[in-house]
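Newbie here. two chains, one complex. Structure please?
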Amino acid sequence: MSRVGVITFPGTLDDTDAARAVRYAGAEPVALWHGDADLRGVDAVVVPGGFSYGDYLRAGAIARFAPVMGEVVTAARAGMPVLGICNGFQILCEAGLLPGALVRNAGLHFVCRDQRLRVERTSTAWTGDYAAGAEIVIPVKNMDGRFAAASSTVDELEGEGRVVFRYVDGNPNGSLGDIAGICSADGRIVGLMPHPEHAIDALTGPGVDGLAMFTSVLGKVLT
Amino acid sequence: MTATVHVDSVTHAASTPDVPQPYRELGLKDDEYTRIREILGRRPTDAELAMYSVMWSEHCSYKSSKVHLSYFGQTTTDEMRASMLAGIGENAGVVDIGDGWAVTFKVESHNHPSYVEPYQGAATGVGGIVRDILAMGARPLAVMDPLRFGAADHPDTRRVLPGVVAGVGGYGNCLGLPNIGGEVVFDPSYQGNPLVNALCVGAMRVEDLHLAHASGTGNKVILFGARTGLDGIGGVSVLASDTFAASDSAEGGSGRKKLPSVQVGDPFTEKVLIECCLELFGAGLVVGIQDLGGAGLSCATSELASAGDGGMHVELDRVPLRAKGMTPAEILSSESQERMCAVVRPSDVDAFMRVCAKWDVTATEIGEVTDGDRLVITWHGETVLDVPPRTVAHEGPVYERPVERPTDQDALLADLPDTLPRPSTSDELRAEILRMAGSPNLASRRWVTEQYDRYVRGGTVLAQPSDAGMIRIDEATGRGVAVSCDCNGRFVRLDPYVGTQLALAEAYRNVAVSGARPVAVTNCLNFGSPEDPGVMWQFQQAVRGLADGCAALGIPVTGGNVSFYNQTGATAILPTPVVGVLGVIEDVRTRIRTGIGDSGDELFLLGETRDELAGSEWAHVVHGHLGGRPPAVDLAAEQRLGELLRAARVSAAHDLSDGGLAQALVEACLISGRGAEVTLPGDPFVALFSESSARVLVAVPPTEAAAFTALCQEQNQPTHRLGTVTEDNALLHIDGLTDLPLDQLRTTWEATLPALFG
């Protein structure tokens, strides 16, 4: 069985949800502790959402220095699939694994809503199980979710097809180009603000559209 | 650093009996001060005076409410107590919900701080109730917030509401607790005194229940969490008591409020503290635990010692501080947030400290349990406090405040709504349905609830705008709980006894409508000044109504909170006893959704509709009228409804309350995004806007309709077939009256709060 690591920092909130999603997808979730420079032999890593270190200084700015993140950066550069959700996306940007930054929402409020997204790229480690152009609904919930980057960076992301998810039917936070999620050049590292781990069971979420992110990495990458 | 601090020791106090002391400024009455001197046989030290004054405040001692609250105990039968593992007097009530699970829930007020500083007041309200739940040994699982503000269009409401909502969200979201419901109510009586109540629900295995007892001589007292600073000193005595100083001034109206320092919260510290505590509980390292909330260390040490079987010695100079030069009295009174106090066996101290170190939580041994019956606090070796702890925590003053039915009560009851002009033509009825749907108390709460995380932890089955919030407790079995809290303060103003029972009935119904079985009650009793005999009458009637109602329903009150001195100037708020009901559902997959159901479903109205418009939202919105007798309460009918809903196969349901059937239909259609065709029973106006209790709108699949009506007949449930559910985004068609396109209804319903608060 594939082993997928889920990191817990002080202030991480969605680690149990991410672990549950990994389990629903048919893999074994492995708890990774921020203070241990050890990935415990996992095949992929999820950096879950929350407010690591209380978002002090800047969301993700302190977490990137955690011992475990050194290992994540090394493994990711060697091709290990890494998924950053919400605060995890912010941490991956701070760690330099993904370009750009996530800044305060345009409306200046925390926004929690069921958000429609378009899957713009399926050739990544985490989106292979979606149909190209599919529209999915998964929750977005954050205070600092507005994707910002230099226009040259945005042009590069768009030009190389590295925008993975785009907001449709309304942009909840003023993100440039309605960008909800992006990936690394090799498509192994994906970061997104919405929360696929909250859309794996119609009982507790808006539907099951998020589950495919977790099955994608198992079916097409880790087997 | 501390050498310069002047210390008023016990020895010093004994030798200087005549030193004038600022007891009045600390909120103590002359006779209370005299009693302290009698208890101690000398004048109190500064530290003792600080501790007694804060612990004998209204907020901590319940001195005005105690004589009335005992009625809850008198009306609770052994049968009602059967599933109660902890009740009134503990940090929070605990109920056995089956399968070895215990659930704890409680609601508390943070009204006055939230008026002074809306964001921090609301945030620390959430933080405080979460620590209460944690202190029972439970993992906090969800929060909800009943909120009340002044007029929606008043300029100060624009200051208070956005701050309160951002504070509730900012703290709860960062803590990783889903917000699953609550209330937002506007009324001018809350203009200078908003109500910010915070509810938290948590769960644990039955054997993990922890109580706040300091037992076992030689056991260590460990303070852990945030450092202690100068914030919120005297918050409790100053905030929650005696703000009714305006009554002293002949003019009345312009109240002279003491403006205290409001505590500042740090949810990140609390999140880490939660995980740290749960690991400590799991490892069996805690004998007793108490959170530090109102009255800080004064409360924690005296309550732990008072409830235990020994005394306690605390070395106050060991408390880690974040301000220089703090006096013993200040350290005892500080309300710095995110702190807990634990009693730990000496052999477990090292392991305890290791867990705290893992979570980077500051932990300090500050004292130990002793074999005497005194609470002794020293400061660099000098004794600054030496008291019998029970006299501080459990044997405070008790007042029999004068109780008198207000002289205007009869005039209020006689001012019937019957003569108010009623809409009669279809155009008028249509216009009033729309006006009501967009009115501040009935409009969509989305602007508020979108600022709260409802998904975190993955256990939220129902949340706003559902009638009740529901969370899954056990992932394997699907066992879960539903919670709703409700109160219509106008009904309580008209008749506090019946009005409080109506609040109970509504919360009970909301839980029942979700498919859960109501099992326990909590409350947050928000009232005006207890020094006003009319307010005390409201309070007494409300307590009796709630207790008698709970006895009739057979479910116990497991805890609660009293908040007095809620006044705008010299005028009391609408009496607002918020009632929270907890229900159990064996498998959350069987929950009933709030909404209109699926296309083709048959719609039924359960319950009897009478011409009951007194105190209604219609009278309030359309005529600004409040008078007459509130709707009749029928708790047996509420029970029957609950039983029916748990036995029947329905696809959706929605409780009828504020705004009556008209609002229930509008909301149900909009929540589901589906239209309906209905025929109203009887007089269309009464059918649409009456607020008769014990009524529910249900949708039943056509294949189940015959069985459903048979079941209703068998259970003597009054039932009226209203019509059918139509297509997605169609019309709300009311036969012979009007067609309301859902798009138009949605715009009306959703535009109000964003337009007011951006």
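Moderator note: Chain B touches chain A through 31 residues (CB under 8 Å). Confidence is low (pLDDT under 50) at residues 1-5, 237-260 of chain B. Thread marked as resolved.
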